[in-house]
Amino acid sequence: MSAPSPTISDATVATVSDDTITTVSDDATTTVTTGGYATVDTPNGPFTVIADHADRVLASGWTDDPAYLAALVHRSLRPETLQHSETLGSLTDTVTAYYEGEVDAPSRVEVVQLSGGTFLNKAWDALRLVEPGRPVTYTEFAERAGEPAAVRAAATACARNAAALFVPCHRVKRSDGSLGGFRYGLETKKWLLDFEAPAAD
Known about the structure:
The protein is an alpha/beta fold and 201 residues long. The protein is built from six helices and eight strands. Helix content is 26%, strand content 20%.
């Protein structure tokens, strides 16, 4: 399952050549870096991880299109060049471990994300503390992020999360118990929640 191609934001252009993706931005503050990416087959389709030179997750999700994920990375973190690898060591091993039943494994991987405001950064940190098998509502998520009234902003944090699975936005639901939204489809979100449900026992 490939995610739909997004509009590349921040004046970013992506080109692909010999398993190497080059992103070009007209923003002078963009840091020139090289990152890596790898794709793992999962029951929910191909899952791709983008990491920086320090093996920190920059973006991830159920797609085989690294350019799609690169567009989600904040321009100050986005690598100029992405080099394909068969694996990313412990990062792709963690994805495999998750699907083998170690559903808390992604919480132990370092992730780096940035936004233009302070709430999203706090929210993403809070989201990483939501345990498998214990989903929360958007209202509860806002409370955990320290701003109980910011329910709409909490939903935005989920929508703008670039590091799916490692920052588990799939564990946030609406107050009425319905799934809400998910970048990679509600079928995948429901599958993940059902898969993690035994962890609550």
